[in-house]
Amino acid sequence: MASTTTPAAKGLSKPRLTFWQIWNMSFGFLGIQFGFALQNANTSRIFETLGADVEQIPILWIAAPLTGLLVQPVVGYFSDRTWHPTLGRRRPYFLVGAILASIALCFMPNSPTLWAAAGMLWIMDASINISMEPFRAFVGDNLPSEQRTTGFAMQSFFIGTGAVIASMLPWVLTNWFGVSNIAAEGEIADSVKWSFYLGAMVFLLAVLWTVFRSHEYPPEQLKQFDDTGEDEVPIEALSSGELQQRGGMMNRAGGIAAGLGIISVIGLVQADLNKELYVLAAMLVAVGLLWLAAGGMMRKGNYQNGFVTIMSDLLRMPTAMKQLAVVQFFSWFALFSMWIYTTSAVTRHIYGATDATSAAYNEGADWVSLLFAVYNGIAAVVAIGLPWLAKRTSRRFTHMVCLVIGGLSLISIYFLGNPDLLLLPMIGIGIAWASILSMPYAMLAGALPADKMGYYMGVFNFFIVIPQIVAATILGFIVGYFFDGLAIYALIVGGASMILAGVLSLRVEDEE
To answer: Are 502 and 400 in contact (CB under 8 A)?
Structure first.
């Protein structure tokens, strides 16, 4: 893939790659999305089958976003600093993550208890994140700036394609191959088990294709190319006064975050609210303490480590990244509400099923898997056309339109009583999903420092993960306290959140 010709001087552009070279470097995303799609479409079903109540589902899901919050920036930081003579910079992480994720996919549907399934979700999500995080930076490393949109579009195509096939698997195995979708109480249906086994195989093989069919520029060669964004002054080059200033900024941020967290804990105790809400308060305290520790280390001159770098750069993100963070928050809050509540909402609101072992419930759950395949298929097609619309309007306007369409579509599920009609809102949700997978990255690309591509891509994941953690901690409380446990109302809340994200996208300072 990457040229082996060493440029004579810094300032040269990277060679353009062929269609098939971009195809090969993106193909691993097919397997990664297989894993995520199986997780998103079937984890709530596994939890309910093992005895989880609808109010418990969000807090059980919290393992997934928490894992991403921890894993992605760390993997990004270390992949920026990795070089293996055979596997390169990012591909070692592709390979290790794929092996671990494939093993976890095989174990997940065989979990004997609810808490075993929650623990396996944590392991599975961590493994998938190890593989996924470097793929975004892979585009920045290997493609010239004029081909990066094509690279992200190719990834979006494989995301949609993998999600379509993986989401359909339980339905296809039951309706085409006669694999049972009903099991004894407390047992996972064979259709789900075999879907996970097949997904594990596809995950590993797809990532292996990218590992062995693509190449990377060595660090010394990569530095000689022009890149998106400007290189930052190395932290070791900062003066003592600048180090003191940065450390003081982290100390102030840490004090504020920890203080707000402690106040929140006291308020929750006084109000005697659900214990799940303590997760958010504990996160504030934890982040505050981390900033205080990193700030103290920097002011003492102990700054040459990944921990201080990660915590320092959280406060020094590019302006466009901060603005996109708000858009991402409300977009992914909506998506997470859809992923964890659509099965419960559809099976109860439309199929009238109240028992997770009933035929009606399993029929509805299989239909939800198919619906998820539809919106991912729509996203794969729409992603190809979004650059055309963005070129004729703007990326901000394009993202706004797509998110508003998706939000209205999510809300419309409440008003549909026929399962077949649910295909219509899936079209709108697919349009929004296509934009979420591509437009934020297109708007962000020009703002990232060239020498921290992997790290900042990992940090950008914070604004995907944090809203999922918020959703996992408060949606169960909202649904149980305000909506009498009816999951359909969580989809309405999610739809409103997605519309708000669309409106907020118009304020992003995007350099077209």
So the answer is: yes
